[in-house]
Amino acid sequence: MNLINDAWISVRRKNGEKIKIAPWQITEAIGTDKEIIELAAVRPDFNGAVIQFLIGLLQTTCAPKGNSDWRVWFNNPPSSTELKNKFESIVLEFNLDGTGPRFMQDLTIEKEDPKVETVERLLIDWPGEAALKKNTDFFVKRNHRVNLCLTCGVQALIAMQLNSPEGGRGFLTGLRGGGPVTTLIVGDTLWKMIWLNVLDINEFNSMACFTKNDKKDLFPWMGETRKGNTHITTTQDINPAQIYWSMPRRIRLIFKHSESICNLCGEKTEIFIETFYSKTYGVKYKNVAHPLTPTYVKDNDILSKHQREAVGYKFWSSYVYGDSDGQSNPAKIIKTARGRHIDDIRMCIFGYNMNSNKPKCWYEGVMPIIFIDNETQWKHYNAEIAMLICAADMARYFLSKAVAKALNAGVFNTVRQRFWQETEPEFYRQIAFLREEVIQEKDGLDIRRTWHKHLVAKGLEIFDDMSQSEMIGDVNAERVARAYNELRRNLNGKKLIIDILGLPKEGGIRVS
Ligand SMILES: [Zn+2]
User: Fold this and answer.
1) I want to staple 273 with a disulfide (CB 3.0 to 4.6 A). Which of 120, 153, 292, 306 is the partner?
2) Neighbours of ion ligand 1 (CB under 5 A)
């Protein structure tokens, strides 16, 4: 199987039809009801892996020279024949099987006395022995014996190399750590979804050492693996392309030629994967940023961000702006999107919520992005937004405390989730107004006042709702009344109004 020439990617057309295509077919039938709208893999983490495969493929073979060059394909997508020709140069590097180099698999492992593992271990959420005992396997059905078809096998392989969690001594985490967050610009067709996330060549080249041009500098499986027990691999050791084609795990799939049913997609297959060779110390990456992942600096190291709770506007600043002193940065693609002046854009955020080496769940969320061109105004805008988010977080804290007091029980998760969700639409409405205010050099005070009123109203509404819920049963009315009064005082108090929102003591705001 060849990952450029063969049809292995499940997609959905505009008319609802689900088909499998080869990568070069992504632009087929654009403008008709058969155009390809989205990926349609059997698992959401496979969709996450395949979209990064496709972005990586375009980034590696078709990076635009600059904004105007990028815009040409954005407005007039290339034909599938044109794409096929572009991908031709790397067909040999994308063989999944065969005796030579194989896509994302170790070249020499068979000579080095490897361990043979069962294929379910390629799935990140497959429970290890400890998890089985504790019954904490989250989203894979237990099965005694698992067979994967080649299509599911390759998606599991990519997902593992991209997200590789800590796997015990010598089993290294991925280039961005275990289960990183990925932020993508959203497009309304598969083509746009890919092309919106491809950087200009110069920007991409700046991410590693573009003069390193041996095949194995781009695709680490094209030579002997640069092993992590003897080498640390930094941006100086790799071509930027390797950021998309990283190989922290030494894996080589074992193919069986016989009829079987795939345990993931349920399709009949003539060749299947039941086991794979495995060995410790794949490539150990350090200080390598990824174009699609926000980063932060810790002890002079550049680290990728990971998401530990549901995606919501609380993280807007972190994913769109970072901070003003450069310690926290959005993914490079977000900065690029700002320079491309695309109207009305949204960002999709996804990844695993990892608890050390175990995934708690897969999360996905979409948020609007609003940019301002002028650098000073952009900074001002983000400072105002940080204030609004900080105020919301404080209101959420007061609310959680009050509900817990009223019910004499800890319900922090439910309160937190409801509060962020229910204040979200107003947040996006206000930051759209705020953009206009900032551009007109206004102070944003009106927005802050409106936002404060909204937080108070929502806080009290959620409190009422939760403290009177019939599901709670025995409610102590006096305790509820005390908690309510305290919440009102806190929401209208100095801390929120003056210390955080910086509102002046005037206009009927009662400050306790
Ligand atoms: Zn399958």
Assistant:
1) 153
2) 149, 152, 262, 264-265
